[in-house]
Structure formats: C-alpha cells, structure tokens
Amino acid sequence: MVGRKPVPSLRACSLRCIPRMVKENIVRAAHGTQCSWFRIFRGDLDSSPEDVLNTQIVRFKEYILQHVIWTDREEVFLLLMKGLDEGFQQIRNGWSPSKNHSQYSNVLEAVSMFTEVLAWPSLKYLDFCDVPRSMRSRMLNLIPRLTGLQVLIIGPGRSGGWVPIKGLAALDLSGKLTALKKLTWFSMKRDCTRDILSSVVLNSGQTIKIIDVENSKGITDESVPVLLECKGIHELNIYGTKIEDEGRARIIMGLPKLRNLVRADFLCDALGWIDYLDEIEDPVYEIRDFMPSQDYFFHETWQLEIVTRMCPKIEKMLFIHHPEMCPSLLPISELKHLTDLQLHGGDWKESDMDKLLHRIGPGLIHLGLISVKGLNFQTLTELFKSCRSLQAVVFNNCDFSESLSGMNQCNKNENLKELVVISNLRTEYITWMFRSAPNLEIIHLGYATHVKDSTFLQTLAEGHLEKLQ
User: Fold this and answer.
1) How many CB atoms lie within 10 A of CB 40?
2) Contact 394, 369 (CB under 8 A)
3) CA–CA separation, 382 vs 400, rounded Å?
4) d(Cα 286, Cα 310) in Å, to the nearest integer?
5) Among 30, 317, 453, 459, which has the highest number of CB atoms less than 10 A from its own CB?
6) What's CA 353's distance to the chain center, in Å?
7) What confidence tens digit (pLDDT) does each residue in 404-414 have?
8) Among residues of the chain, what percentage have pLDDT more than 70?
9) What's the number of CA atoms in the CB half-sphere (13 Å) around residue 183?
C-alpha cells in the first residue's frame, strides 16, 4: 500500500511562503519606484524615487513585524534573508548588454536597500554562515541596530567568498560592536583583532560566556589582559593565535570558571609555566579536555602528572603514548572524572593499559584504542568486564593475536550501543564482540575485518543483534 504523505502544519505552510513573498515584493517595488509612470499612477509626483522606496521599505518592515510570532523570529529572519538574496539574484540574472545600465544599477541598489527590514532589535542570534554572500556587507552595517543580540558569529559562510576584515574595516567593526551590550557568545575566527576583542569585552564583559578567536593572528599577548576582564568565561578558543605559552598560563590562572579550552594542544606547556611561575599554591583548574601537542605529539610522564594534579576534572582525553617518553599510562588513572578516552599507541601489558582500564573503566562511556598492540580474547574480556558503562568503543588499526585461546570466555556488556572496528583481525573476534554486546545498535566495520553476509546471518540466527539499527 502506498504510504501517505504527511500533511504539513499551517505554520510550516506559512513559513514556506516567506522567501517567495519577499522576493516578489522587493523586485516589484524596486522596478516600480524607478519608473516615472509608477509614481504618476500612485500620485507621488512630488516625491523622489528615494522617498517612494523608503516608504515601501518602512511599510514592508511594519507588515513583517506585525505578523511574526516572536518565538519564530530566528527562523523567520533566515527566511527573510533567503528571499532578499533570491530577489537580488533575480535582478542580477536579468542583466544583458541591451539593458539601460543606469536604471539597472538603480534597481539593483533599490533591492539591496530592502535589507533594512532585517534591523530587528530583538534578534538574539546571528551567524554569518547563514548570511548570503550578497548581503554580508550590509548585515555588518546593521550590527549596531541589533542591540538584543546574544550570539554573534562572524566568519565565512557555506557560499564562500569571504573578504577578510582588516585595517580600517576591522577598526570600523570594533566601533559597531560597542552597541551590543548583551553578548554571551562571540566568535570571529581568523580576522579578530585586539580592538575588536576590546570592544566586545568592554561592552559585554559581564555577560560573555564563550569567545572564539581561533587562528586570529591579530590576537597577541597584548590581548591577554582584555580576556582576563571576562571572569564569567567558561569556553575559550585561542588556538592558532599569537598568544605565547606564558600568556596562555595567565589566562588559565585568571579565568576561574574556564571549563572548555578548545583545541588546547598547548595545555601541558601552559601548566608547565604555571608550575614555573609558582604564584599560586597547589592550583586546581576546571579544564575538562586534554589533547596532545600538535608540535611534538608525545608527552613525558612529568607533564602527565602536572595535568592530573592541576586539572583533575578532565572528562575527555586524547593521549598519544610513547614507551620512552611515558613508559606507564597509570598517571591517567588519577583523572577520576574521565568519561571519554582515546589512546594512540602502546602495548596492552607493557604500557599498563590493563591496569589503567581496571581503575578508570567503570566511569568510561566512550573508549577508542588506536594502533594498540597485544590484544586478544583475554584482553577483550578484561576490557568489557572493567568498562561496564561503556556505550561506544573503537578499535582502529589495532594488533590482534591470531590465537583463539579464550574465545569461549564472554563478559556481556549491556550498555554498549556502538562498535567501530577498523583493524585487520579474524572474523571470530567480530562474532565474539557481537555476542558480548547484546544491545548493539550501530556497527562500523572496515574492509580488513573479513566479515561476510554469512557472518551476520549466523549471528542473527543465534539471537544476537536484535536491536541493530
């Protein structure tokens, strides 16, 4: 029987019509206001085209605002931008060499002036990824009038063609940002400068919670005192900026509520500076994530010990093991709040990985093992027994023994929902994992697992994988 198509709601039908309504209205108004016969028809002989156009814009904006339910304002705002962009593109696509160039330019300018309808003081969220390329410069000019903004994300959108904001343009933007007093989230990757950051902090320093200035070379150590004014920040991204390790250390010391230090591959070096400066006795910070340095990758035991001592609340960790730099993984066991762990390299026994998972396994929800050696049925049994709360596990390029010893041992893990295996191993390992995780919902298998259709058919016939999605 042919399935019925779901009937869209009245709200969905209404929202669907907005882009077309906007496009048709602005194109008609832009053409009409540039024609003398239109003004004669309306009786506006004493009015200039600009006056007539401004009247049209004001009336259209009033109409929109009168019919918007404010709980839908973010969605309606996006649909308005889409309609404005479609109208702009329709005018541009209608150009030909035979056109009156002066009138064509006037119509194009008239259409672009309709961005005035987007000046909504009550708008709370603006992401320039959603702003069409044809409207970006005018939206930047509208920022001072969007006084209710709480989230402002400035950066290239999906359509590309982003023009870097530098020099006078950056200085001009810093002036426009002074009107925003309620920002809680500010993001400007690549192009942020000290002046722009100072403007945000000066006006929204008491409310700002998230700052993202990734890869902005204009952010240097001179910006550190500016960032330290935002005591309420809990998420910060300064990856790729010109702030040095001592400056990063000052930021960690000076922001007591900082939890998410995004892409902080410099964490060990910054904590080393804090230890060297010795300005605070037994410091403990709220940092929740750890990732290895992208410059030297491998960390020594003393660095790991500093991390566990100063940031004991880390919940997510990616660690690359080197037997000479850090012979044992046991220092990680001091991180009692760890729920997401990825280990690259190391041997199950020689690196004390078995002892580590025995200690922290009960709290782990996600575990990833990449290029780990010494795995077999016995180690898998230990792993599943220790990590009883595990919901997702990854085996990527791991070395599994060819021996089938211990295959009949099985510790069922009722919580495991996702299994990823991208390693060269015998099919018996896969079927063992299927039997050990009766509630598996998602499975990703690499080509080197040698699994065939018959493997799944046999497993299903045995009553396993009943919840597979």
Assistant:
1) 10
2) yes
3) 15
4) 9
5) 30
6) 31
7) 887 887 778 88
8) 95
9) 30
For 260, phi then psi, to 5°, come to -105, 100
Phi-psi domain of 248 (left: phi exceeds 0; alpha: psi -120 through 50; beta: other): alpha
Q: What is the DSSP letter of 95?
A: -
Nearest residue to 254 via CA among 227, 282, 281: 227
pTM for this prediction: 0.88
Distance, in Å, from the CA atom of 154 to the CA atom of 196, rounded to the nearest integer, reads 12
Residue 352 dihedral angles phi and psi, to the nearest 5°: 65, 30
The structure tokens listed for 198 are 């100072």
CA separation for the pair 468, 89 (Å, rounded): 47
Q: What is the DSSP string of 307-327?
A: HHHH-TT--EEEEE--TTT-S
> Going by C-beta distance under 8 Å and a sequence separation of 6 or more, which residues neighbour residue 215?
189, 190, 239, 240, 241
pLDDT exceeds cutoff 50 at 37? no
Q: What percent of the chain has pLDDT over 90?
A: 62
Lowest mean pLDDT among 141-145, 306-310, 346-350, 408-412: 408-412
Q: Is the pLDDT of residue 248 over 80?
A: yes
Whole-number Å distance between alpha carbons of 256 and 238 = 17
What does DSSP say about strands 125-127 and 210-212: parallel, antiparallel, or unpaired? unpaired
Q: With b meaning 16 or more CB within 10 Å and e meaning fewer, what string describes 48-77?
A: ebeebbeebbeebbeebeeebeeeebbebb
